[in-house]
Amino acid sequence: MNIESQLESIFSNNQDNPSDLGLRLGTIVGGSLSKGLIVKLDAGELPGSMIEQLAVGRYVVVQGLTERRFFCIVTDVSLEHTNPSIESNPPETTDIYTAEIYRSTLAYGRANVTPMLVLEHGSEKPRPVKTIPAHFSVVAQANEEDVARVFGKADSDHFYIGNPIEMDKVPINVNLDRFIERSSGVFGKSGTGKSFITRTLLSGIVKSGKASCLIFDMHNDYGWAIKNEHGREYKGLQQLFDAHQVNVITLDPETSQTRGDRHDGALHIPYDAIEPEDIAMLAGVLTLSEVQVNALYFLRRRLGRKWLRKLLSDDENDQSELDDFIQQGDLIKGTLGAIQRKFEIFRHMGFLQTNVSEDLVETLFQKLNSGISIVLEFGIYGDSLPAYMFVANYLTRRIHRRYVATKNKAFGNQGDEPNPLMIVIEEAHKFLDPEISQHTIFGTIARELRKYNVTLLVVDQRPSGIDDEVMSQIGTRVTCLLDNESDIRSVFSGVSGASALREVLARLDTQQQALIMGHAVPMPVVIRTRDYGPELYEEISQQSNNVQSNDEKVAQAKADLFE
Hints:
The protein contains 24 helices and 22 strands. The protein is α/β, with parallel strands linked by helices and 563 residues long. It folds into 3 domains: 3-142, no CATH class; 174-240 and 356-558, Rossmann fold; 272-347. Helix 16 crosses helix 17 (385-411).
């Protein structure tokens, strides 16, 4: 075949829209791998209308000349022309015919698309893009098959999370194995639907049985039903799953009883089990100075396990013992007085008790390790950031310690590996602030990358408050609308092609839209999140857990908690 015949064959194959492509949008007329591709849009049925059908964030494909198919995301749209006089002398709006002629001949729409993946001829899975399609390659809407090629079809490993923009019947699925493999995050300003997206993701994880979840439910959003401002009720996780899968534990039984919510037990923390490390993380919230924090460690060394009880005690003997430290010069009176004033908040935490009969942390660990997810409701204590941070820190430190021990035994062939665990925390920047993240259990877990089968799911409206090193370890980022520049910059930290995606994030709807990128999806994609409602409820009720509990798990699940 001569050169002319080869060229004719290539171009004829490309100019006609291949049968497996969606609606043709236009052709490639320029661009680069680093800055994205330039697409001249077709005129459409009504000249100039094509641009109004193409939204920023839309998923499109480009059919290359050498049978490569490029998967791209629309990052910008613009109006262009071939004659500058159009700007200075546009046709009158009433002159329909002249305007249509202009749009057909002198004006056109342009889109910028960023290639993310490419499917080579003969390959089954797309790969990261390293080149770009040739001039005049066809650009088309992605179809259901294109989406399935990239994001997989819903199965035990892939969970339906939403739909691409303007593709309401095409599912986007996240890879659950990869989602729990590293710490993940759900970000967005207040009112953008973070809690509903988190609920949906947690439903998928629990249904799959791939990990247990320990959910520190600050605002009582996850365990039982809630109502939105319009009175619509949404089921909680315990209403979707049975007791073999989800337990709800409360710090505030009275509020649960008042609301008519059933719980599986009440959590109490013994004073004598509390260590200075459990409280030191609250230094910023309680305005504890370094001297005051050091004083806590001194009191623990000198008073033993009862240090906190004695610090808060009104007993004369206890106060006398503290006064002795002052007289001996071991403590400054002002330091002790400041600590006692700031620690008054612990007197109002009803879940702190002097006598607790059993090791509740061990009970929680056994439940989590047996495959049961736990929602810890805070009730009235959800309004107290110190209470939330204290409980989350207290439990996470001890449960992580048990996971480390269990994993190390497995390394030494002395037992089984612990069941994967995902810990869910809200107001995550309070735990992962740059000043403290190096010294907190949450920063440790984020940096471990599931070394001990434990990861985080952080939910936050201020990602800029999270330490940069920790953010770099967030594998999957589900981001709703953000309008603070520093927050936007933070969620794109370490993300390839971030500059192109910033405009996409800025154009999200205020509710039920999110940009997903990272470890659990092959390429960034903007979705309209699936409705957390009857369809999801029915899906969960019809599908049994893919990982069946063994007899030991069932027996453990039936055990009565916290009697």
